[in-house]
Write a structure and sequence with these properties.
By secondary structure, the protein is of the alpha+beta class. It has two domains: about 30 residues; about 220 residues, Immunoglobulin-like, CATH 2.60.40. About 15% of the residues lie in helices and about 40% in strands. The protein is built from two helices and 18 strands. The strands form two sheets. Strands 2, 3, 5, 7, 8, 9, 10, 12, 13, 14, 15, 16 and 18 form a 13-stranded mixed sheet that branches. Strand 14 and strand 15 form a beta hairpin. The longest helix has 25 residues. The protein is globular. The N terminus is likely disordered.
Length: about 270
């Protein structure tokens, strides 16, 4: 009996150890970036929104928020917030589905500033993109970008959620779909200008765990007013949303009836 009991204890200990290792493997890791810039769809005039996916049954308008999620890593203090940021936004469909437009928050938002820019529609056709940047290409003209900031010189502070993250909406946008079928992804693009770390190029100003950062898109800049010896690795992530156009069930039924009619006509001949 002692051997049997020892075997059972050993098996139980082994199971606990395996579950412990499994738990460690499954435990969520700290977020790699400081900020994730997201485009979050909020509604559509001709379809449905499911998280970061939008399904349309035909031409329509998709509304979305431009959001900064600051990965604070703590829920004990309100020492995190965004003060200034600039982005481009583009659709990977090359304009075949529709056009984009961005809006700065306005006078009632903490991100109101007379120097805000909604971004210049660009691309072929005009309106495919907003802002001058493509992924991996340096920004050439800051007036073309979507740029917002507060009217004060200090970072806007907010209260993190239970995960230690703070989400701040700092703009809105619309994607006007004119096509009747197809798919695309609408994505934000972080400006990558690395020509200088001077004040005119440090467009990302935010507070993270009590530290004040002024960075450009490569992660170069200052931390607490001290110039960083090396750029911060992977300071920003981005997340867009997908758009899929599918015909209405009624349209599919009509198409099927039409095909059946053609088939019957051919048989009669």
């Amino acid at each position: 009996m002692s051997n049997l009991r020892a075997s059972r204890v050993l098996k139980a200990a082994t199971a606990v150890a395996v579950m412990g290792l499994f738990g460690l493997a499954m435990a969520p890791a700290a977020h790699a970036s400081l900020i994730t810039f997201e485009l979050v769809p909020t509604g559509s005039s001709n379809g449905s929104v499911n998280g970061q996916s939008v399904s349309l049954t035909g031409p329509g308008t998709i509304n979305f928020n431009i959001v900064a999620v600051l990965h604070n890593g703590t829920d004990t203090t309100a020492d995190v917030g965004l003060q200034q940021a600039g982005l481009s936004v583009l659709s990977d469909s090359g304009g075949s589905l529709g056009t984009l437009a961005l809006q700065t928050p306005g006078t009632t938002s903490p991100f109101f500033n007379p120097t805000n820019y909604a971004g210049t529609p660009s691309g072929t056709p005009v309106g495919t993109d907003v802002g001058p940047d493509q992924p991996g290409v340096q920004n050439q003209d800051s007036t073309d970008q979507f740029l917002v900031g507060t009217s004060n010189s200090s970072a806007v502070l907010g209260t993190p959620d239970a995960n230690g993250d703070l989400s701040q909406i700092f703009g809105t946008g619309t994607f006007t779909v004119t096509a009747s079928s197809g798919s695309t992804t609408v994505i934000p693009v972080v400006h990558l200008d690395s020509r200088t770390i001077g004040p005119s190029r440090l467009m990302y100003h935010f507070t993270q765990q009590g530290n004040i950062y002024d960075l450009n898109g490569t992660g170069a800049g200052t931390e607490n007013s001290a110039v960083l010896a090396t750029p911060i690795s992977n300071p920003f992530d981005t997340q867009g949303f997908s758009v899929t156009l599918t015909p209405e069930p009624g349209s599919l039924a009509l198409a099927g009836l039409g095909g059946l009619g053609l088939l019957l006509r051919r048989r009669r001949k």
